[in-house]
Amino acid sequence: MSEICKNWTSWLKSTRFAYMDEEQLKQTMAWLISVRDEILNLADLKENQKIADFGCGSGLLAFGVLERFQNRVELIFSDKFKDCLDECKKILNSSNTLNNAYFLQSDITDIKLKDNYLDRALTRSVLVHVLDKQKAFCELYRVLKKGGYYCAFEPIISQNTRYSELTNQDEISDYNDFKKAEDEFMEAKDDPLVNFNSDSLKENMENAGFSEINLDIKIVSSTYTPQKEAVKTWFNIPPAPGQRTMKDRFLDYFDEKKVDNYILEVQEALSGKEININSKTAHIKAGK
Ligand SMILES: C[S@@+](CC[C@H](N)C(=O)[O-])C[C@H]1O[C@@H](n2cnc3c(N)ncnc32)[C@H](O)[C@@H]1O
After folding, report:
1. Domain boundaries, the chain
2. 6-29: string of b/e by CB count within 10 Å (b at 16+)?
3. Cα 115 from Cα 103, distance rounded (Å)
4. Which residue CA neighbors atom 22 of ligand 1 most closely?
5. What torsion, rounded to 10 degrees, do the Cα atoms 105, 106, 108, 113 define?
6. CA 10/CA 12 separation, integer angstroms
């Protein structure tokens, strides 16, 4: 496990932005705000509702709700980890926002709320970190009132562009072996980041009992001209605290010398070249 990524708060505050230049940072922040606003608009929030941001992290969605409604809604900041809730409390105390906000330390697969409690349940990039997604959907369904909605944005990492699609046999030694390894670990059933796709999300929601399911799958296409160092960091930055890096994943299949050589060849192949990366995202509105 990487030392640069000890807990969610430090990941959210710094690791995810590591090695970004000012322009990339600006773009990422603008993107986060646009995703936040999309979820909040989709949720059709109204005064007096009971709203929870599950896996709130540093409160992207919850603070967005507060900005819109101050204390005219009941708002729950919920996360599995205390460091995230402490961070949100700190932000809340340092602003003078009047509020009706509560903090709930809870795993999304075992939510410490009674049945039929919420009008809205929100998540952004949370289920992607949960191994048992079916259990999470059942819990989200249980805590929603009849007529309530779950609204979310979740990345579908298993369907993103892979290194094997960005490179070819002329550029990479043992290309087919590396492709095979990548295809295998990018769909591993025991890895929460990749153990799902758009079909399984829909199936999980139906199984949980959601009746009105709106699952909008988008492909975000980004064009980069990465530099050599940036390509290297893609292999070395953990995608979440406690999660193994891409390099770690390749090390399950090959020895370190071979993986280092592969990374070097990918760096050579991609640096200074315009590349197109597709990311698949799920935009969810599901009603009870
Ligand atoms: C990528 S962060 C997203 C944070 C926030 N929603 C945002 O949009 O910035 C993932 C969050 O999910 C939380 N999380 C991970 N597993 C969880 C679980 N099983 N139950 C509840 N929260 C969880 C983490 O603590 C972290 O805050």
Report:
1. 1-156+196-223+276-288, 158-190+226-272
2. ebbbebbeebbeeeeeeeeeeeee
3. 18
4. 55
5. -110
6. 5
Packing angle, helices 256-270 and 228-236, rounded to 10: 140
Reported as type and span, the H/E element at residue 23 is helix 22-42
Cα–Cα distance, 80 to 95 (Å, whole number): 24
- Separation of CA 51 and ligand 1 centre (Å): 16
In whole angstroms, what is the distance from residue 135 CA to residue 27 CA?
Answer: 34
> Measured in angstroms, how far is the CA atom of residue 221 from the centroid of ligand 1?
25
Structure-block tokens of residue 34 = 């646009």
- Burial class (CB within 10 angstroms; exposed 0-12, middle 13-18, buried 19+) of 257: exposed
Which strands sit side by side in the sheet containing 212-224, from one edge to the other? Answer: 101-105, 74-79, 50-54, 118-124, 144-155, 275-287, 212-224
Q: What is the pLDDT of residue 43?
A: 98
Copy the structure tokens of residue 121: 């349940």
Two tokens at 171? 């550029």
CA dihedral (7, 10, 12, 17) positive or negative: negative
Give me the average pLDDT of each 10-residue run along the chain (288 residues): 49 65 77 93 97 95 92 95 91 74 96 98 96 98 98 95 97 98 96 95 98 94 88 89 91 98 97 93 98
Atom of ligand 1 nearest to the CA of 16: 1
SS3 of residue 245 by DSSP: coil
Ligand 1 centroid distance, CA of 57 (Å): 5
Give the CATH number of domain 1-156+196-223+276-288.
Answer: 3.40.50.150
Distance separating alpha carbons of residues 18 and 25, to the nearest angstrom: 9
